[in-house]
Amino acid sequence: PPHNFSFFNTQGLHEILALLTSQLHPDANHKEDLVFLKDVFSEKSIGYLMKIHEKLKQYEKHSPTPVLHSASCLAEDVGPIRSEYIFSLAVLSAHDTVAQKKFDPVLPPLPDDLDDDLEEESVKIVRLVKNKEPLGATIRRDEATGAVIVARIMRGGAADRSGLVHVGDELREVNGNLITHKRPDEISQILSQSQGSITLKIIPAVADDDKMKESKVYIRALFDYTPFEDKATPCQEAGLPFKRGDILQVVSQEDPTWWQAKRVGDCNLRAALVPSAQFQERRLRYRMKMGSVSAPISPKHLYPKTTFVSLTASLRRSFRHRKDRQGSPGEAHTPDANHTEFLIYEEVAQYFPRPGERPRLITLIGSLGARIAELKQKVIAENPRRYGLAVPHTTRARKSHEREGVEYHFISKAAFEADIQNGKFIEYGEYKENLYGTSLDSIHRVLDQNKVCLVDVQPEALKTLRTAEFKPYVIFVRPRIGDGQRKQFGSSSSLSDDDLQEMKQSAEQMDECYGHWVDYVLVKEDPASALAELQVVLEKVQMEPQWVPASWVRR
To answer: What is the topology classification, in CATH, of domain 116-210?
Structure first.
């Protein structure tokens, strides 16, 4: 438009309309659009908005200063205000607000101190002013920690406009009241009913730009680690000591050698350094090659599967000479036992038992003298409707008091060997020229009845059972070896000191080779207390969340 074009007269607006319409293709389809544009630019409000905009630009350019900071006092000299001048009084009041720059609401002072339990955390005090409108935020309860978390921020709401509350923030207090033990619906009601100033005590979430992709990765440590014994760590004080079985949350894997992690359940919120899986494997291979025995993390955590068979065979040969093991099968075998792996970390996730799902498989392993078979039988005998036994197969002849499918499944040797070839057994062995084995089908039969299936197996069979299908909960039963330990074997026990020493070594060897698969260790003092402890554990397994391999819960 020409330089003398005025935005504030009707002719100028029509010139803008003419300019716009001239750029449009003269097609019949545009007629409605042209009419719409004409109506819009004919509105008086468009002219008013343009005029206000120009005045504001002039104000910004000249930066005028107020003559008075309290023009409202001039009204006092006028006398009583008549109704027609109320608008003028409102304008004077608005003038004073701008002149005195009183744009923010009056808020109570900030607290002088914070709660002791928040010393280690970064706390933010947020003050919001709202009327009857909702806060514009939803909250949820974190299943893992129980914390009250901001779930979402509604666009345009009070929380969104403030820019001070973010998704992921942890809400601790509302107007000085601790809300960590309140239900989310109770907290929402408090927020909706609050008027005027609302004071929130918040633990800020990590900014999106600072979040690592690995912030939701949890791992189970499969070895013990002591930073002060590790000469390779960049800072021993910054290292995180942990034990085998500890659950760690990895918050950063940016450094390929040293990850940042926190131990789940620790009060300390600061991350610390742990060796990365790649770095730990490299140095374990190097130490194994060099034959080092002074490494901070011993090569004992290597587990050649070939060792499993020889160790188990040794244990089984020892059992054969024990009176309490008469009638037990011989050596156990599992398919594929032929390569070496390093035990470093295992990615895990929380599994929450849900109604209607098949129960988790309960797998018991035991060292010499644990007598887990009789312990298992007692659990089932006390509650046969809830617990079931995976009935084993055998090739021996059925005795007169035995029933098919109760004590054993009795099959021919040819059928047994065919099942071995077809991979139907999780373990099998030979004893007194008869074959014995536990099949996958026998486990499925129990689980399909919605019963908790208890199996006692040689620990190398866990390699077959540790799948998302069974989600086995592994209980390691070991006898207590110490003063008065013979009482659990009966007063007539003929166990010698050498026998007890062998039992102790058996438990240590089994823990060393298979402890990384164990969820619970039951130290058997006597049959009665062991049974009671086992029953408590079995109840918790079916009711409480547990950490399991992440692949078991991924869809």
So the answer is: Pdz3 Domain (2.30.42)
The CA distance from 227 to 68, in Å, is: 69
Q: What torsion do the CA atoms of 214, 218, 223, 229 make, to the nearest 10 degrees?
A: 50
Fold observed for domain 313-334+354-545: Rossmann fold (3.40.50)
- What is the widest separation between alpha-carbon atoms in the chain? 120
Considering the chain, tell me which residue range(s) the CATH 3.40.50.300 domain(s) occupy. Answer: 313-334+354-545
Residues 6+ apart with CB under 8 A from 462: 363, 365, 472, 474, 514, 517
Contact 114/176 with Cβ under 8 angstroms? no
Whole-number Å distance between alpha carbons of 24 and 12: 19
The token pair at 90 is 């409102």
Q: Are 189 and 145 in contact (CB under 8 A)?
A: no
pLDDT tens for 381-416 read 999 999 998 899 999 999 989 889 888 999 999 999
Distances in Å between the Cα of 328 and the Cα atoms of 44, 179, 325 are: 99, 58, 6
H/E segment holding residue 548: strand 546-549
CA atoms within 13 A on the CB side of 326: 2
CATH H-level superfamily of 213-301:
SH3 Domains (2.30.30.40)
Residue ranges for the chain with pLDDT beneath 70? 1-34, 37-38, 41, 75-89, 101-121, 131-134, 154-156, 207-215, 268-269, 292-340, 482-494, 555
Q: Determine contact, residues 397/481, Cβ cutoff 8 Å.
A: no
Assess contact for 349 and 218: CB atoms under 8 A: yes
What's the predicted TM-score (pTM) here? 0.55
CATH 2.30.30.40 location in the chain: 213-301
